[in-house]
Design goal:
Oligomer: single chain
Distance between the termini: 25 Å
Largest sheet: 7 strands, parallel
CATH architecture: 3-Layer(aba) Sandwich
Mean pLDDT: 95
CATH superfamily: NAD(P)-binding Rossmann-like Domain
CATH class: Alpha Beta
Number of helices: 8
Number of domains: 1
Radius of gyration: 17 Å
Number of strands: 7
Strand order of the largest sheet: 3-2-1-4-5-6-7
Structural class: alpha/beta
Order of helices and strands: EHEHEHEHEHEHHHE
Helix content: 40-55%
Low-confidence stretches: none
Length: 247
């Protein structure tokens, strides 16, 4: 297990469910003090806080809509007040909407880019001035940005743009020894994904994954924990493909 310094303050956006929950719990188990960000589901966030505390760690749930610049600033303010300046920031929050380009309306386009791309810009901008020297920033991207698929154009573009922001931020923050990377999960067995997959569709998806199964949230969390630990100190400006060989 990659060990996180016990003095680390870690912010995990979208930390109440799915991959974000697994990341928050993994960083807490590794020794970080975790800010579990959520948008609306306070009960789920408090469950994550309890899970971290049950392993001997510390965690606090903080509500914020990361698509709002002012709320991103408040999120960082709260983290600093509770645990001190952040040394780890994991931006996991995002939304998925799928439709053909010809059928995508302006509102859906705006919502996807506000939540997935504009929020990445806001998080990176705030983190650039707040994360301690030697810190770690990780953005959760998507395998959709690597594989062009029908009906995923706007979503994939929003994630690809976020990946590019990561690569630029890595150059800009390197002088302070801050690493910035993104992780592209493949199909992952979150509650939302499981609810939308019929057995036939699940089998078809798994058939495209060389390692022969859907990822579990913990698989992605371990990759993030590695990047956030001292073991990942020499990796920056990279997009890590965590798709079981799918891309």
């Amino acid at each position: 297990m990659s060990v996180i310094t016990t003095t680390a303050t870690a912010i995990v956006t979208g930390g109440a469910r799915g991959i974000g929950r697994a990341i928050a719990e993994r960083l807490g188990a590794g020794g970080a003090n975790v800010i579990v960000n959520y948008r609306t589901n306070s009960a789920a966030a408090e469950t994550v806080v309890s899970a971290v505390e049950n392993t001997g760690g510390k965690a606090t749930a903080v509500q914020a809509n990361v698509a709002s610049v002012s709320e991103v600033r408040l999120l960082f303010d709260t983290a600093a007040e509770v645990y001190g300046a952040p040394s780890i920031v994991v931006h996991n929050a995002g939304i998925t909407r799928f439709s053909a380009i010809a059928d995508t309306n302006d509102e859906d386009y705006r919502d996807v880019f506000d939540t997935n791309t504009r929020s990445t810009f806001a998080i990176l901008r705030e983190a650039a001035g707040r994360v301690v020297d030697g810190g770690r920033i990780v953005v959760i991207s998507s395998g959709a940005a690597a594989i062009p698929r029908a009906n995923a154009g706007v979503y994939a573009a929003s994630k690809a743009a976020a990946d590019q922001l990561v690569r630029v931020a890595a150059k800009e923050l390197a002088s302070r020894n801050i690493t910035v990377n993104s992780v592209r999960p493949g199909p992952t067995r979150t509650e939302a994904v499981a609810a939308g997959l019929t057995p036939e569709r699940a089998a078809a998806v798994v058939a495209d994954i060389p390692l022969g199964r859907l990822a579990e949230p913990a698989d992605i969390a371990d990759v993030v924990a590695f990047l956030a630990s001292d073991d990942g100190r020499w990796i920056t400006g990279q997009t890590i493909h965590a798709g079981g060989g799918m891309f």
